[in-house]
Amino acid sequence: MTFPKDGRCRVVVERISPEIDAGRFSIKRVVGDTVRVEVDAFVDGHDEIRVVLLHKRADETHWHRQTMQALGNDRWLAEFTVDRMGHFNYTVEASVDRFRTWRHALKKRLEAEQDVSLDRLAGEALLSAVLSRADKTGRSKLTSWLSVVRDGSVNDLKELVVSADLLDLMDAFQEAEFPTRYPRELTVWVDRPKARFSTWYELFPRSATSSPSRHGTFRDVIDRLPYVHSMGFDVLYLPPVSPIGTSFRKGKNNALTANPDDVGSPWAIGAVEGGHTDILPALGTLADFHELVQEAGKLGIDVALDIAFQCAPEHPWVTEHPEWFRKRPDGSIQYAENPPKKYQDIYPLDFESSDWKGLWKALKEVFESWIERGVTIFRVDNPHTKAFPFWEWCIAELRKQHPETLFLAEAFTRPKVMYQLAKLGFSQSYTYFAWRHTAWDLREYLTELTTTEVHDYFRPNFWPNTPDILTEELQHGGRAAFQRRLVLAATLTANYGIYGPPFEHCWSAPREPGSEEYLDSEKYQIRTHDLDRPDSLRHFIARVNRIRRENPALQTDDRLVFHDVDNPRLLCYSKSTPCGANTVLVVVNLDSHNVESGFVQIDLAALHLTENEEFLARDLLNDQEYIWRGSRNYVELSPFATSAHIFQIRRRRHTTDGEVRFD
Amino acid sequence: MTFPKDGRCRVVVERISPEIDAGRFSIKRVVGDTVRVEVDAFVDGHDEIRVVLLHKRADETHWHRQTMQALGNDRWLAEFTVDRMGHFNYTVEASVDRFRTWRHALKKRLEAEQDVSLDRLAGEALLSAVLSRADKTGRSKLTSWLSVVRDGSVNDLKELVVSADLLDLMDAFQEAEFPTRYPRELTVWVDRPKARFSTWYELFPRSATSSPSRHGTFRDVIDRLPYVHSMGFDVLYLPPVSPIGTSFRKGKNNALTANPDDVGSPWAIGAVEGGHTDILPALGTLADFHELVQEAGKLGIDVALDIAFQCAPEHPWVTEHPEWFRKRPDGSIQYAENPPKKYQDIYPLDFESSDWKGLWKALKEVFESWIERGVTIFRVDNPHTKAFPFWEWCIAELRKQHPETLFLAEAFTRPKVMYQLAKLGFSQSYTYFAWRHTAWDLREYLTELTTTEVHDYFRPNFWPNTPDILTEELQHGGRAAFQRRLVLAATLTANYGIYGPPFEHCWSAPREPGSEEYLDSEKYQIRTHDLDRPDSLRHFIARVNRIRRENPALQTDDRLVFHDVDNPRLLCYSKSTPCGANTVLVVVNLDSHNVESGFVQIDLAALHLTENEEFLARDLLNDQEYIWRGSRNYVELSPFATSAHIFQIRRRRHTTDGEVRFD
Predict the structure, then answer these.
(1) Which residue of B has its CA nearest to A352?
(2) Entry pTM
(3) Nearest Cβ partner for A1 among B8, B340, B397
(4) In Å, how far from its chain's centre is CA A236?
(5) Which of A234, A608, B256, B377 is the most buried (most CB within 10 A)?
(6) For the structural domain made of A192-241+279-309+349-554, what CATH number should be given?
């Protein structure tokens, strides 16, 4: 017959949220965020319990303790703030609360006018026991409460049983007897704020040139920084900048054979000039790259680099570390293939190599070399074709020295694989956004991303286009589609990006009908761009990004709420700051060719508005203002204008001088 | 820099279901049940994986291995059967499947008419490696497959890549390389079938008498067994049969002072005659009790006993083990109270006693003494006012020797507390059923009980009445309400019970208006019952219980489906066996006073019927038959008849001789 260690620990503590996969993974937050913790806790019988949230920075030795509040139905709540980058821990402890139990019984007996002499004795014992544990101020306060317990009038006791002061004292100094601790300590990973709110611009440095016959350089990109900055972007993401292989190099439009002057795909990494830590000579020198990072930094722009762990046949690793590659039965190195398709210009790395540790170390050093050069944001190419354990290890190792590093996972694959990468440490993730067109699809997808457990570890980064993705909607929807997709990306999620200048110039020609590839794609050739084209969306983009900067509601994926519209071609949603100081309501016409109108049924509570109050809806895209009242409001949007309203919602306020203002 | 143990274990295995609280608790099944296990499993890249369910009896040393089937979206499924009482374990292991990956690539290349000579070489290596691990038959089969791989025609290879035979061979003998095991082993507790399907009848032995002046005995109960059996009950549950305390004994109708001839409440346990393991002399002897258990057993009836862990002031423990009780500040023993209410006839046990181990042992011995006397079903009184760790320990300890024991938790309290008791080991639980009247309430509650995780550990036992619960609905609804509540209890859940004869005699008088207590309750006095009353529901009850016995669909809480009705006063639901061999459709009129009619919108798929098929609905309550077609069907139910249909649904079948039958 075996007994538990102490069968007198009667309180049950279970189902903490947030908790990912029984504590296997960290939840994510950014510096300054609040972590809202809930838990089930209860005890047998009628005793009162005290539930305490324990939290600390991972490197602290003692827990901070915070009494949790009852939410009803045996659920408890407390919050704590994470004030720096790195790991934090949290868990919950609960115990029978002798004082609260005593106080509750005394209160009931006082109400029923019963004799309380035994309650006085019990209370005296309780308070006396705590006295020796209290600090000086506490001792003095407790001593006077003790005399109330002993000799106070019934009215004094009635005050005592509702005193917050005494409760706080007892919470501070009463020792928990037979406490139950939640079986797991959970972890928060805290990033810098850009992990949650960032605005990305992708460009090909080779095309930062005025002539297709001259290869663009880092210095050209430096000249382009003011343009990028003027549109309001704060991450400049460059495709790989390393030497490009020549064997099986792809020609223009992904042709199987290249002409001698074809520049090849930047993702075919490695040549006689070097591998992942080296720079393609045509782009410039390491010093040039360094200057680019510096100059961008002055404008608040992070340079993000594309890390693609695959090797062209001439990559130095192929000869130096043949054991990092798989062999075919004929002894040759296995090129990439997805039968029957073959990609002979690329060798994948073998994560089952007997020297997997050596391989992992080398890959980590690739990141480290770029971190040394000032890059702390990485867009990782196809992370889902590399081993999951590697990512978990690599990101954790890098963050020990560099908690500021951010990783964007470019995995367009099955949902659970994408979510797994986020769990393992990726800071942001590409999504299915590009292919979600209808109001129903967008609403379903965003509801999953922002209201389920996924929201605690997966940060979506919405891209209307990428060098690989020119959707049918953009091919056929004209300028309206580009504007609409920009507004959706920029306001549905706090992280978004575009691939430009093709985006602002509304490039819509596919390589062939049915393809999502660009015709004459910059992936395989140098293109030029007239940045001053009168039809450019640059000013529209700048306005949208300014709206994002000026409205904190748009700087998080929290509190996204959809509002019903009686026209399925219109989508309406809002975001607001926790107490509603800033509220943005967006209405988008999802039809590229027709004016759409309808009635929006606004969830006023989500906008911190009451049923019959007048409020101001100011369209931040065109500065028009509307005075609305109530939940039902008419909207009409034309694809020939901007296809969207981005309303800032202001409540009506009566000033002392009788004027009416909205703020 | 630390590395994981083997970074080459690339497959992710997560989110097994069923799993309760990260494996903290067992799921429950009965002998013969199937456990359906699902899991997420996936790997980076394009490799195929093999996912294997591992399961075993807890006392087996080796796992049984079973290949899981892909459900799509990286979810996998397999089932296993639990064939005896006790604990079973299960978990999942997955690995990259070299053979499936090779086979898939070969298939694609064959379809694209590419060269496959390297595939032949790789396949040869794969099959040869397995050869040495195969048994004799396997070796012989593999050898001929090997020659196909080496020299077979393209057509031979096309057969090979779809061969189930070769796949089975490889599954049987291929060694998993770099396998990933789910981090936890999970547990099933397997009960005897009565845990899932039982029909309870509660009676007061003291009232099994013909005169209120003569105390009923166990021998009287033996005489009443044929009556109980004739109604189809298979559990006869008795309130406590131990000596009843005299101090502060409650009089008739819970009066604070008793008359000398008042018999007291059976729940005030303990007197000079003894405590929890002793028998109240007025009921008879231990030999009588033993005979009752024997005679009941001959009719397939289990005698279930009420275990109420609380003591009357004269209980032997009070003097022998004063340390098992809490002291008041004046040194007296703490009686039960819920301020301002006092229950001075009862001393609760102190689960925080310094001798908690001694107390636990004594309580366990109470169960053991009754198990020795042939009782293996216990109805536990107010388990939620005793420490949770005690129940987990006690039930587990008892089941080591007696896996056949069943425990019904009588906890009418907050949902999470009730669920916790079920998690800790209680086999069945009282519920909120008595207070769920409307179609919406019943549907919501049953959906929670039968379709959420709760279904894996909480077995509801529905009681229309108990000695403590005479609902308003029964007080005012007349005979219709009793019939309705019986049908609901008996067909919504597989475990149900009634407190009789008050139930079959439709007792409806409360102690006072607004009370749920019976007037002149048997809890405090002897009552007599004329079992042959012409208005008795005994024959109706017998019919309903026969329907339960004859329809396996009603013997489980699985596959309960609600069907929409256009009248909120009508509730419609069905249950069916896994493949639909037995299907029961129930329609209940929830109004006690009015005829209600409406159209039922039947979910035909849930009934294993197609859209335009004719089917027979045979009402098992009155043998009337209806031929229906399609999903929309009219029903009309009168409270002056039986208030319910219990249809057995039969499909139309054309026999060879041209006749039409339904079966």
Answers:
(1) B8
(2) 0.95
(3) B397
(4) 18
(5) B377
(6) 3.20.20.80
